[in-house]
Amino acid sequence: MPASYAYLGPEGTFTEVALRTLPETATRELIPYVSVQSALDAVRAGEAEAAFVPIENSVEGGITTTLDELVAGAPLMIYREVLLSITFALLVRPGTKLSEIKTVTAHPAAQPQVRNWLRANLPDVLWESAASNADGARLVQEGRYDAAFAGEFAAARYGLVPLETDIHDAENAQTRFVLVGRPARPAAPTGADKTSVVLWQRDDHPGGLRDLLGEFAARGINLMLLQSRPTGAGIGNYCFCVDAEGHISDRRVAEALMGLKRICHQVRFLGSYPRADVGAEGMRALVPGTSDEEFVAASDWVARCQDGRF
User: Fold this and answer.
1) What is the dihedral of CA 47, 52, 56, 62, to 10 degrees?
2) How far apart are CA 32 and CA 8, in angstroms?
3) pLDDT at 2 (0 to 100)
4) Which of 19, 25, 141, 280 is the most exposed place for a label (fewest CB within 10 A)?
């Protein structure tokens, strides 16, 4: 497989900035793609070793395009994650004044992060979505729009100037990006890991979601993301994207997944990988009774009971 990483382009996206924080990019060719779907499809087709795409932001939650691709597309796995602090600049062609701006563009995920700023400063502006923030900058360069919300670093790349900088409605806003590849053995646990899965219920019934969450709660597993996504089978039909603390090699996580496999119509494993927000030293203490050693001891006790050695 080519030693290349696909990413949501064009050049100058926040995605590219986050991707370049990974040390291995020094030995990879980085190839921009026009959409999340095309970047992931490049991996599925064997055109790239992995794809790097946004999956969640701290203002609006999950990036639905990425989630839906991981839910419904040919199986892929998450191997790494990166968190990037996000602030926007309003990029314009040289000479443009704020009062002259009638149209703006950016990736759809950017709008909720600058909505209040727009209301206060450009209340009558027309918003149009772009494939990415950098693509929005390119469209401004071409004269299609008056301004784009993008990273300030993208200005020089597209011959634009930042009319306003440090734009954000929420302090400390972050976007989470993931490195996605074809299914393989997960990396070894680090002690600070995350496991991602998609869950489909067997049927719609009272307490159905509680039953799914109970498999995690009974084993002391904290959830970091829970988001429903429509299955396409009609109104009210949803699957659930879940990020849980821990690694599939942890006994508590493995047993939770086995429990979910028994009660769900379908479970899709999206990977176990290192957390970007905390190291092993910063992890919370395990709930009593949920360590690997305690699971092994309990299993041994059952075996002794079966042998009459209790």
Assistant:
1) 0
2) 6
3) 60
4) 280
Measured CA to CA, the distance from residue 218 to residue 268 in angstroms comes to: 21
Give Cβ neighbours of residue 68 (< 8 Å, ≥ 6 apart). 229
Contact by Cβ (8 Å): 6, 51: yes
Dihedral sign of CA atoms 196, 58, 80, 7 in order: positive
Say which residue the tokens 């006790």 belong to: 301
pTM of the model: 0.89
Please name the residue ranges forming H helices in the chain: 14-19, 36-44, 64-72, 111-121, 133-141, 154-157, 208-217, 251-263, 292-306
Rounded to whole angstroms, how far apart are CA atoms 244 and 221?
Answer: 7
Q: Please count the residues of the chain.
A: 310
| Mean pLDDT split into 10-residue runs, the chain, 310 residues | 86 94 94 95 96 93 92 96 95 96 94 93 95 94 96 95 94 93 95 97 89 96 94 85 97 97 96 93 90 94 91
How far is the C-alpha of 169 from the C-alpha of 115, rounded, in Å?
A: 7
Burial 214-239 (b: 16+ CB within 10 A, else e): ebbeebbbeeebbbebeeeeeeeebb
For 73, how many CA atoms within 13 A lie in the half-sphere containing its CB? 23
